[in-house]
Design brief:
It comes from Vombatus ursinus (Common wombat). This is Transient receptor potential cation channel subfamily C member 4 associated protein. InterPro entries: ARM-type_fold, TRPC4AP. The chain is mainly α and about 800 residues long. Among the domains are: about 170 residues, Leucine-rich Repeat Variant (Alpha Horseshoe), CATH 1.25.10; about 100 residues, no CATH class. It contains 43 helices and no strands. The chain is elongated. About 40% of the residues are buried.
Length: about 800
């Protein structure tokens, strides 16, 4: 824009913008530019400044000619201009910015400041970002019938420069994210294979900082767009989808309390934007089937070398992926260096092909990076509102058997000495692609198995027959889900996926971060209606002994790992007298038992699910007359310890004391439910007054009368409001009252309150414990320690 076109008419405005006597004041030019960009008034871009002034100030200000180049770019990018000149100008600008971007991703970002990247800062300051956006969108803004066409190379250069500026200059990405028209326009560029990767990378960066999640249904022709992608493009598109289907993290611990969640639920009565986007994806024909094929594709089936090498060349300018490529090329170089001279072809053909053929390790890593994105999307969809629909589809498309076939060669492959490590990370970092793939795989198994009958697809036909044989031997009905499992959809080969997981789990080093995720995945297989056959299947493979070794003998210190093992142990032992017998055989000395108790008592937030399991199991066993049960009851240290009322009361006291309404989260609310189970079972045996009196005595011993029962009263009031919400199912927990009945095994809820109560439904205990009369609960706001039941 010429100098005379400064926004606003009138000599006063021009004088304010240009300084005394019409000459631009150099001292405050940068401030004027920034203010103009924010307000839209006055000096807003470098094209408004005279060429003479820019030349005069360029060397002293160290602008490297960027403002002058932007002036030329502006002139040559007007309607009906020759865009070929624009591309030559961008070729001059691009190296100045890409050098700084390379520094940004290869050095410590903590010390990165605008002063470190003067070129990208200058480019944005003089209106370069807005100008490139205008150039890219110009064909969509013109009303002419014959629209101006922008070449693929010019589009790629614009996108590349925009991305480099985004990562080096604060605020640029957020400004672009605020322009919904530009964000949606970028998706239209993904139809062109030549500009796909650059566009996808920029979109991912922009969506990552966007305050409000976009609606996928607003993307023009989304279904057609997705169907046009090849498998590589679809995998990269999953990186973008991950941002659009995952709930935004508020980053504040206060936001994760149950009080805050309840308040948020009252505000947001309808589905969230992420849930709407998940539904949109599921409506795209063939989408899930293509994801399953990508997830289970073998390395040998991946796209040919030549196309990938071309993609690598494009990626090299895309610094979000440059870290990965840097590591990949390092692996390739190591393989070349370690190759023997004898392997060379005397004719020289081998030397020529080595420049065009991709090393096997790079092919594997390429496939790992793709599968990471795909597994994440499938995992999120499995935890969403359309979970059953997703389950049905991924079972039909044989995701689980396909992953089973990839387990040894790709997912849990042995590491070579040249294990890939991303720049700035180490081999044990969760950011390593190998490690991240394993964790994502385990998270998928956890989501797939949890409370769903399709979990038996993790077994092969022989293992399903084994479950049937266990039920037959125990003279108990076979689980319907086992009988109804479609054998054509289960794993093939000698071992199913669950058995393979158990094998690597037992070999995992003591301090491995995988232990947590492995235990969670196996535990999810057991969650739901308690199945004796499922438990025995795992017990026969030494799982209980492995868990006890990790808790007692390996001196495990990780709270996360211990919590996952306690939870798994609880599911494995619940109501299973054989499991308690095996426990007593392994914990065969008082010294070992004290170590085990010490681990439990070190953090009841972590171990209370096991305490709940022991309490419920003890109650069941006490009502059985079988001699085997009676023998184990008398011999098992764990059951004998929990049988003593003083020990149960001590647990109850501590469980209530470590939680408060204001600090209840999805993680520790299990302590409240465990304390309620203890009191419910006591009420059934007319022992509730004794427990309440014992708690009152403990209050006086602590010289703080009322602090436990008053806190418990507040917790119960909150519990009513939280669990008896209109969208919660309270019938499930009322079946706790059946836990002493002969046929009550399948009626006992699993209390999935620690991790996924919000996904799988709550298990309210109140109607049983509080007498089942909601109106009566509200009338009397007092806790009576002499009553036969708790009344609010």
């Amino acid at each position: 824009m010429a100098a005379a076109a400064v926004p606003g008419a009138g000599r006063e405005r021009r004088a304010a913008a240009w300084g005394w006597g019409g000459r631009l004041c150099s001292g405050n030019i940068l401030d004027q530019l920034r203010q103009g960009q924010v307000t839209g008034q006055g000096l807003a871009r470098g094209a408004q400044i005279t060429e003479a002034f820019l030349k005069e100030r360029d060397k002293q200000a160290k602008w490297n000619g960027i403002p002058l180049l932007l002036q030329k770019l502006y002139v040559n990018s007007q309607p009906n201009s020759d865009f070929s000149k624009c591309q030559s100008i961008l070729k001059e600008i691009s190296p100045l910015l890409s050098m700084e971007a390379m520094v940004f991703v290869t050095e410590d970002r903590k010390f990165s400041q605008e002063s470190t990247f003067p070129n990208t800062y200058t480019f944005d300051l003089f209106g370069g970002v807005d100008l490139l956006v205008e150039i890219l969108m110009r064909p969509t803004l013109t009303t002419q019938k014959k629209k101006q066409k922008i070449s693929d190379d010019l589009t790629k250069d614009c996108l590349s420069i925009l991305y480099n500026t985004c990562i080096c200059t604060d605020g640029v990405t957020k400004r672009l994210a605020e322009r919904n028209d530009f964000v949606l326009f970028l998706f239209t560029l993904m139809t062109n294979r030549k500009t796909f990767l650059q566009t996808a990378t920029l979109i991912e960066d922009i969506l990552g900082v966007k305050k409000e999640m976009i609606r996928l249904e607003d993307i023009p022709n989304l279904a057609t767009l997705v169907s046009s992608f090849d498998q590589q493009q679809l995998a990269n598109f999953c990186r973008i989808l991950a941002v659009t289907i995952s709930e935004l993290d508020t980053g504040s611990d206060d936001k994760h309390t149950l009080l805050a969640k309840n308040a948020q639920q009252k505000k947001n009565l309808g589905p969230t934007r992420a849930e709407i986007n998940q539904a949109t994806l599921l409506n795209i024909p063939g989408f899930i089937e293509r994801l399953c094929k990508l997830a289970t594709r073998k390395v040998s089936e991946s796209t040919g070398t030549s196309s990938f090498l071309q993609e690598l060349e494009e990626w090299y300018t895309w610094l979000d992926n440059a870290l990965v490529l840097d590591a990949l090329m390092r692996v390739a170089n190591e393989e070349t260096e370690h190759s023997s001279p004898e392997s060379s072809d005397e004719s020289g053909v081998a030397n020529t092909s080595s420049r065009t053929q991709l090393p096997q390790s790079m092919k594997i890593m390429h496939e790992i990076m793709y599968k990471l994105e795909v597994l994440y999307v499938l995992c999120v969809l499995l935890m969403g509102r359309q979970r059953n629909q997703v389950h049905k589809m991924i079972a039909e498309f044989k995701l689980i058997p396909g992953l089973n076939n990839l387990f040894d060669k790709l997912i849990w492959r042995k590491h070579s000495t040249s294990t890939l490590v991303l720049h700035g990370h180490n081999q044990n970092c969760d950011c390593s692609p190998d490690i991240t793939l394993k964790i994502q795989f385990l998270r998928l198994l956890q989501s797939f198995s949890d409370h769903h009958e399709n979990k038996y697809l993790l077994l092969n036909s022989q293992e399903l027959n084994e479950l049937s044989a266990i039920s037959l031997k125990a003279n108990i009905p076979e689980v319907d889900a086992v009988v109804n499992t479609d054998r054509s959809l289960v794993c093939d080969g000698k071992r199913g996926l669950l058995t393979r997981l158990l094998q690597v789990m037992k070999k995992e080093p003591t301090e491995s971060s995988f232990r947590f995720w492995q235990a969670r995945a196996v535990e999810s297989f057991l969650r739901g209606a308690t199945s004796y056959a499922d438990q025995m299947f795992l017990l026969k493979r030494g799982l209980l002994e492995h868990i006890l070794y990790c808790i007692v003998d390996s001196e495990c210190k990780s709270r996360d790992v211990l919590q996952s093992y306690f939870d798994l142990l609880g599911e494995l032992m619940k109501f299973n007298i054989d499991a308690f017998k095996r426990f007593n055989k392994y914990i065969n000395t008082d010294e070992k038992f004290q170590v085990f108790l010490s681990q439990i008592n070190s953090s009841l937030v972590d171990s209370n699910m096991l305490v709940r399991c022991i309490t419920l199991s003890l109650d069941r066993f006490e009502n059985q007359s079988d001699m085997k049960v009676v023998h184990v009851l008398s011999e098992c240290r764990l059951l004998s310890y929990m049988y003593q009322m003083s020990n149960r009361t001590t647990f109850l006291f501590r469980l209530i004391n470590i939680i408060h309404v204001q600090t209840l989260t999805q993680e520790n609310v299990s302590c409240l439910n465990t304390s309620l189970v203890i009191l419910m079972l006591a009420r059934r045996k007319d022992k509730l007054p004794g427990y309440l009196n014992a708690l009152q005595k403990m209050e006086y011993d602590e010289k703080y009368p009322g602090f436990i029962l008053n806190n418990f009263h507040s917790l119960l009031r909150f519990w009513q409001q939280h669990y008896l919400h209109k969208d919660k199912d309270s019938t499930c927990l009322e079946n706790v009252g059946m836990c002493g009945s002969p046929g009550g095994w399948a009626d006992i809820p699993t209390f999935g309150d620690r991790r996924e109560e919000a996904v799988n439904g709550a298990y309210p205990l109140g109607p049983v414990l509080l007498g089942g009369n909601r109106e009566g609960m509200r009338r009397n706001p007092a806790l009576s320690v002499h009553s036969s039941c708790l009344v609010l």
